[in-house]
Every structure is written in structure tokens, then in C-alpha cells.
Amino acid sequence: MKWLKHGKIFDPSEHTLANGCVQFAQSPQALVFDDFVRIYFSTRAVDTNGKFLSHIAFVDMRKNLREVIRVSDQTVIPLGGLGCFDEHGIFPMNVVRHDDLVYGYTCGWNRRVSVSVDTAVGLAISRDNGLTFERIGPGPVLAASLHEPCLVGDGFVLVIDGVFHMWYIFGTVWKKYAPDAAADRTYKIGHATSPDGVNWTKKESRQIISDQLGPDESQALPTVVKIGSRYHMFFCYRESFDFRKAKGRGYRIGHAWSDDLSNWTRDDDTPKLDGTPGTWDSDMQCYPHVFECDGKVYLLYNGNEFGRHGFGLAELQP
Amino acid sequence: MFHWKKLGKAFTPQEVQERTWLKEFAQAPATLVMDDVVRVYFSCRPPADAYGQYVSYSAFVDLDRQDLFKVRQVAEQPILALGGLGEFDEFGTYPVSVVRDGDIVRAYYAGWTRCESVPFNVAIGAAVSRDGGKTFTKMGNGPILSYSPDEPFVLSGPKIRRFNGQWQLFYIAGRKWKTVDGRAEPVYKIRMATSDDGVHWNKLNKDLVESRVEEDEAQASPDVFYANGKYHMFFCYRYSSHYRGKQNGYRIGYASSSNLVDWVRDDSKAGIDVSEQGWDSEMISYPHVFELDGKTYMAYLGDQVGRHGFGLAVLEGRLE
Fold it and tell me: Which domains can be identified in chain A, with CATH numbers?
């Protein structure tokens, strides 16, 4: 298996976005319709403190995944209320069809004082084919617990044989790598199941994907697809500090496979997604999302600067 | 109507020496009755930091069982350390509630973190003692009861009970943050969860006690006691705005239930109110009822939510 890269397919600066958002199209997530693909992404506004607020928007594309039909011009889901887990941003939102509804699993962000942020996973439901989403409640469905103390987020859900499976990330530690540095976080990928998509049971603190970079590896944005009889997970991983600009320490795409949804074998090399020197994804590849469309397996992902300038596409070659 | 005879203030934190972490406050008393003392857990604070912000620790004072106004000893150290960087209990462990489980003592406590848009958030943690309640080890570095769709923030005030072979956790959950004079003030309601093992909890997802003084009434300290065929709950409540003084401050309310789930509130039965003068003349709060040697006592806080300690009252008559 290998990736055929199609380059960047969406640039947020070429469109007018709701909520005053001007840059970033992060963590693209696909919802496939009969004759188009709706791709949700997180974009950013700036609040009165000069800090970012992530909002969900979407772009509808023809199934060639090139031609833009339209970009959402209204709020898809408002941010959470004062003091709620998703007050300061939703990034990302994973979408999954269930009955006639679309379930949106949000990663909500709220700002802290001693560390920058905490997150949790919420559920919002769409009854209009994904144009707008309404929360099932102001709080999260998956949050910190006894052995997962912080930063539960990045939920990706598949319904398999009537059981909801969620792959998500949980924080293991906040750490200052230099005395006067801001605290950096480390997170790993976990797995939860549910009979209804609302009430979840976590295998607490069970890291299902082994580390490639050692204990200071942060793993994010798991996404799972079944190819033949085997499940494949893609995710991104990086060093836990000095990862924003330093060469070789930033996000790249990882891969693992499983035949039983429980034991995963890490294999980043097959297929491997390399950055293309001198282009939009030369220094960083992150926030992967795999989906099937008309018999093909596609990968949406972000490139340099965590997706400030948009997202791109690759196609799996057998 | 019950009648509680006030006995006075039993513990004054300002009188304790040589503990840098205990300058003032003795909040949310919770008892563990021992052979010759009543161990009363409480929460206290060192001086505020340079920005005027507090952390909270929990500790205990042993009161002489023969004379509850005689302090036998005060904990040398807090019973729990503050949490690590970014953890839910980094800035406070307050309040705490304890229960025996065979040879061990289990503690459930509220852990405090600091937020940007609101001053704090709270979730409930758990810890275990194997030395009779003197020192505790946290069961994990995250909370045992956390946020959920209908309980979005501020899970606090745990009270652990064991009735009918089951575990009950009474607690409060935040309903909204209300902006009053530019300051975010929390509104919270009394809730319950049940468990078969004290570790895995199922939330009832229901307000146990109706609000009385206003829709945004804040309720706290749901202290449940079984006597004479029914469950009695003493709790405290306040208005949502300007509650730091006498007018809108905490008072003690009462509700009863035959099944722990359906509660009938009747504050007129509570039988305890602020005094004309003295340490509890502006507000009374955080009731905790316990039985000792044939008598029923209530420990509670007075003015400034326990800044100057807690007091005791004794029931005249029966809870029925």
C-alpha cells in the first residue's frame, strides 16, 4: 500500500467563513453523500484577548474532491457557554451517520490558568443532514477520569456490528521542559465502546499504540478504516516539546493495523506519507482523516503550520 | 420542627500553631467516630498568595469523645497533597467525606483547578487510608466522578454514604455560571450517584431537592442521615447574587425521603438558624449530622463560610 498525493485541495483564505474566521482549516472530517462530500474542518476567530477560538465550518465538494460546491456561511455549532468544556473552541468534530441522524463528536477546549487548556469529548446531533448540530447537553460524554487525568479529546467513532467504538486521546502529563517555559502536554491514543453512542466505557489509561519516539511522544487524531478484513489506524505523532518549528520534531503521520480491534501493530512505513520538499506539507503532516468514497480510500490531512493554510488529499494505492 | 440546641464553636483554626498550611478556615466538617475521639475532617487554607488567591487543604482534628469541646490533636500534615501540574486537584482538595470499608477508610474529595473565563472548576476524586484515616493515598491522579452532558462543571461537595448494601454519593453539580456585577458566580444543585463498589458510579441525573428561594438558588452540603424509618437530609442553600453577607447568605434546609431518590423539602422543619449575635449570626452552612453515644449532633459553619471554625449543636428530641 502507498499514498498517491494529490496536493492541497482547500485553502480557507479563498473563502468567506462564518464567525469572522479568516485562517486555518484544521482536522478535515468527511461525510459522504450520494453526489458530494461534505468536509468539516476547524477554523479560527480571534477573541477580545487576542486568543484563538476554533469554530467548525464545512465545505461541500464534488466527488472528484477538487471542485468546491459551497462553503458553510452560517454557524454549524455554536461554542459552549460560560464555564463549559467547549467554551473556547471545537477542534475537531468527527461526524458519523446513525439512523437518520448525524452524530458529531466534538473535542471541546477550555482555557486554564496553570496550563493553557483542557479538553473533553462532547456529542451534538444533526437532524438536517449535517448543516447544523445541537448538543445533547452542555457537558461532555467523555472526560477526564481516575487514570486519565486531563486532555480527553480527538474522538473518532465507528459503529461496528452494532457497537459504537471510539478512538480518542488522553493526556498523561503536563511538564515544563525548561524552568521558564510554558508547560507542554503529552497524550496517547485510547479506546472506548458504547451501546448507544452516549454512554461510554473507557479502557482507562490503556495506550493502544506503541511509542515510536519514546515516552515523550504525543499521539493525536486517530482515524480508522477497514480495508479487506483488517482495520487500519492513522494518526499523527510528534515530540512533546519544541515541536512547532524545530526540524524533525513536528507532526508526521503514523499507522497501525489490527485484526481484532484490540491489539494494534504499529507500522509507520506501510503506507508512509512523506512531505514534499518545497511545498505546503514539506515540514509537517498532521490531523489525518481516512474515509471511503466510491470504492477508494482517501486521506485528508493538514500540512505546515498545523493547517493554517488549508488541507490536502492523498489516495491509497493497493 | 426539629430543635437543635447550639453548643457553640468547637474548633477555631486560628488557635492552631506551627502549621503553615493552616491559617484560617475549617470548612465542611465530616466525622469518623473512633474509640475515644471523634475525628472531624475539615478543609483549611494557608494565607492567600500575592494575587489574593487561595489553595485549600483538608485535615482533621480529634475531639475528645467524652467532651467534644476538648481538642486532643490536630493533623500534623494535610491528609492529601495537591494535584500535579494540569491535574483536576492542583489548587485545592476541599471538601472531603470519609467512610469505613472493612479495614480501610475511603475519602471522597473535591479537587479544584483554575480557569480563565470563570474562576475555577471542580471534580470529585477518591483516596484510601490504611492507617485509620490519618493519611490517604489517591486512587488515581484524575477524578472518580467528572463532567457529563447534564452536569457540565463544578462537581463538588461529596458526601459518601452506605445504605442497604449499596454506596451512595451525594454531591452538587453546577447548573450555570451567572455573571453578577462582572463576576462569574456558580449556581449548583444537589445530585446523587450510586455504586456497588465505591469506584464505579452511576449518576441518577436528577435534582434531588427543589429550589425554593429562587430558580438560581445554590444548594450545597447534602448530608443524609437515616433515623426512625426514613432518610433525613440537611443541606445549605443561598441566593445566587450578593450571598457573602447575612441577607442572601447560606441557611440550613431540610428534606426527607423514604427511598433516597424522591425527596420532600421542608425547610420549616430544619430547626436551626442564624443566631442573634456571635460567630454564626450572619450565615450557617455545611451541616453534618452524626450520632454519638445516644445523642444526635450537627456540626456546621458560621459566618464567612467557616473562616473562623465550626460549631456543634445537639438535637433535642428525635429525627422523625
Answer: 2-317 (2.115.10.20)
